[in-house]
Amino acid sequence: MAIERTLSIIKPDATKRNLTGKINAKFEEAGLRIVAQKRIQLTMDQAGKFYEVHKERPFYGELCEFMASEPVVVQVLEGEGAIAKNREVMGATNPAEADEGTIRKEYALSVGENSVHGSDAPETAAEEISFFFSGLEIVG
Ligand code: CMP
Q1: What is the CA(63)–ligand 1 centre distance, in A?
Q2: Among 50, 39, 114, 115, residue whose Cα is nearest residue 73
Q3: Is residue 45 lining ligand 1, measured as CB closer than 6 Å?
Q4: Per residue in 82-126, pLDDT tens?
Q5: Long-range contact pairs involving 40-48 (C-beta distance under 8 Å, separation at least 24)
Q6: CA-based nearest residue to 23, from 91, 83, 112
Q7: Is 113 in contact with 69 (CB distance < 8 Å)?
Q8: pTM of the model
Q9: Does the beta carbon of 11 sit less than 6 angstroms from any atom of ligand 1?
Q10: pLDDT digits (tens, 9 = 90+) for 24-54
Q11: Buried/exposed 86-100: b ≥16 CB within 10 Å, e otherwise
């Protein structure tokens, strides 16, 4: 399987509860390398642009407000099949449906406050990585 990169976000519910290190340990235990990482505070406008694909959904406003409510940690994860592997480590979007041992099963509070985001495909991974990082900031 090819080496891929994927965009990960540790969301406000998790940064607020000081879970960044525990979540990063899950990625590293799964063989994902954190090749870029920064803690930032999103504006409503930035959150809205990042989640533009969901703008017709009823939860869009709530999602943007949540993402701008506290700092987030944005990161690039690298590894074999990193996109699918990260989604496996994260678990299902709704923590009630997430498998044992996944980040969302252990830490997520609800479908909205679900601790982490991960890109869902190679095209979105490339777009989402370039939304937050320049090539110079990614060191594999
Ligand atoms: P994420 O992987 O970041 O992609 C879109 C996000 O929308 C998703 O995780 C959830 O946090 C959020 N989301 C999805 N469904 C709902 C919902 N029914 N109510 C609130 N937020 C949702």
Answers
A1: 7
A2: 39
A3: no
A4: 999 999 999 999 999 999 999 999 999 999 999 999 999 999 999
A5: 40/71, 40/72, 40/73, 40/74, 40/132, 41/68, 41/70, 41/71, 41/72, 42/67, 42/68, 42/72, 43/68, 44/68
A6: 91
A7: no
A8: 0.98
A9: no
A10: 999 999 999 999 999 999 999 999 999 999 9
A11: bbebbbbeebeebee
Q: Does the Cβ of 59 fall within 6 Å of ligand 1?
A: yes
CA distance 72 to 38: 8
Check if 117 is active-site. yes
User: What single string gives the DSSP state of each residue in the chain?
Assistant: --EEEEEEEE-HHHHHTT-HHHHHHHHHHTT-EEEEEEEE---HHHHHHHTGGGTTSTTHHHHHHHHTSS-EEEEEEEEETHHHHHHHHH--SSGGGPPTTSHHHHH--SSSS-SEEE--SHHHHHHHHHHH--GGG---
